[in-house]
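Changelog note: in this version the structure field was regenerated for every chain. One regenerated record is shown below for reference.
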Amino acid sequence: MATKTTLIRWAMTTLLCLLIAYVGWLSSIAWPISPVSGSVLEDNTRAQSIDSDTITIGTYNIHSTKGTDGKRSIERIFDVLAKSNPDFIGLNEVRGGAFESSNQGQELAEMLGLSWIFAPVNKKLFSGYFGSAFLSRYQVKRYWVMPLVTTHVSAAGIQSSNNRNLTSIELEIQGRSVMILLTHLDRGELRLRQLERVLDEFNQYTHVILLGDLNSTADDLPLRKLLAAGDVVDMVDNGQPHAPHIDWILTRGFSVIDKGSTPLGASDHPYYWAHVRLKNG
């Protein structure tokens, strides 16, 4: 009887250990998110009609609201954003709850009085969603979120993978179609392939803005070629043409009125903004 009881206990312990290991494995997986699309942003009642050919745009990797002091504060991120009074904001490294109850982009949109869309790239079982968010003062015509290249095999046969996406937003300004693209690229070997895909999309449009952390500088060949074409403006150069930076505001079909940045502090990235005017023709 003692031997039978011991075997049962051993079996139960083994099953429990296997269950714990399985749940741990499940919680470590970054599950990809399916493509989504729509024509109305969340909290669209806050969105206005565009009645001007000038807009203010910004890009900010908020590092999940974790500042350089190691403390998390969404209020500090709000303070940074509010100073530039942006019409459109692209946010990277945005976190959402495990059950989609809320996300940091939504919270910031509520604080700023803007409409929004959360575009997570993956979800982990217990730690929730992670990705980018787009905040808007104005109504949009449509939006869609598509995954980027997620797998790369090196010459040595080593495979790397990371879920990333590209959010495309179409709006109309003064009767002209304008595209805003938002992304956050991988830091590893996938980066250049993702960058080429994003710039291919950028080059499809006459009036277009690209926002986001590209983890790339102007020394990277795809960006170097794009900037050399002459019709694209780097809104982040701060008077130093193509100074090293990995967060970008790239425009075609716009002229700059003013621009600026906020140093590290609330996040480990600067916040960049630009006040731009739509060009005729």
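Spot check on this record: Residues 181 and 201 are 9 Å apart (CA to CA). The two ends are 90 Å apart (CA to CA).
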